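Standup notes
- DV: blocked on the single-chain target, sequence here:
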Amino acid sequence: MAKREDEISSVTRSKERAKNYYDRLSRCYDLLAARSERKYTALGLEKLAVCEGDRVLEIGFGTGEALVSLARSAGSTGKVFGVDLSEGMRRVAAAKVAAAGLADRVHLQQQDAARLTFPDEAFDRVFISFTLELFDTPEIPIVLAECRRVLRAAGEICVVGVSKQGGCMERLYEFLHRRFPVLVDCRPIFVRQAVVDAGFEILDAGTVSMWGLGVEIVLARKTLR
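- DV (later): unblocked, structure below
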């Protein structure tokens, strides 16, 4: 059967394989990928506009690039929490946060974002950058539902992710994802639609290009159902 153009590719590697892969990659991830993602992550942070005193959660913090910015914006009266599947990434991020003198504001956990351990309405804002597309399609609404659960009423979420827009580069990227599911473990998804389907109100959404791939930056608010 021919593959539909609007179908999202599956993530076939296990979470255990993903964890082991990122554990090995953690010490060199900044050289391999973080530099190319940094510009787009910064755009998302700008949209989220964390304020002094905010309680913030980052899903998939990686090597901690965004954590430092979030902690500075939240200030001495705020708190930043982060979850990541990889213990290697947690160690690298913790060292980066400590080097910036912000360890007292940041709390990191190795945790699966599909099963967050935080209580309801614990955070003012949630940030996800280049992480949602790592989850298999059935888990994307589960992750966003968990984000919605831990956000306070009218709390805001910003998602930065590789977006399914069509085009030659996207088709090549999806081919590599299917052929090498561990090395190319993310794939383009419908970022904005996923956020809407999870029950958020879109405040701002736009698409920029990264090497010919679309990157959506979506800011949304938790609304009462």
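- Follow-up: The CA atoms of residues 45 and 69 lie 8 Å apart.
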